[in-house]
Amino acid sequence: MRPHRFTDFVLDLAKNDPAVSRARTLAEDGDTKHPFGLSLTMTSSGESRWQFAGQLPDGAKHEGFTDEPVTGDPAPVLGSPDTADVPEAWFAAVLTAAKCPEIKAVERWSTRPAEAGEPGRNGLTVTFHNGARIFARQM
Predict the structure, then answer these.
(1) pTM of the entire structure?
(2) Which residues pair with 106 in a beta bridge?
(3) pLDDT in tens, 24-39
């Protein structure tokens, strides 16, 4: 799933979640620096902004790559959006609760071992069954 389609997918999930009082793309929110992402206002925790960057499957080239869905078993559910205590946990829970057959795995950056990533970084790596990835960085 490419960043544009992922943005539309997550925007739809966010707009249908009762914990979200406002959901807009970063472009709709006036951000011209980041082409893909969302600005969310949560009823309990306020605003969170997310930038999306994509990585094609290994060996794929941008020219000629078609974003055809490849499906398989959905990623394991990572908690409930209703009980998530931070935006990163909510985002992971919403994505996995959707049981999208294109999404193979969702990894929260804050739960990685300290040596695997930068401390204090919040975000997700979403891996798809076609080998593509989306990196969702909380800004």
Answers:
(1) 0.91
(2) 126
(3) 999 999 998 999 999 9
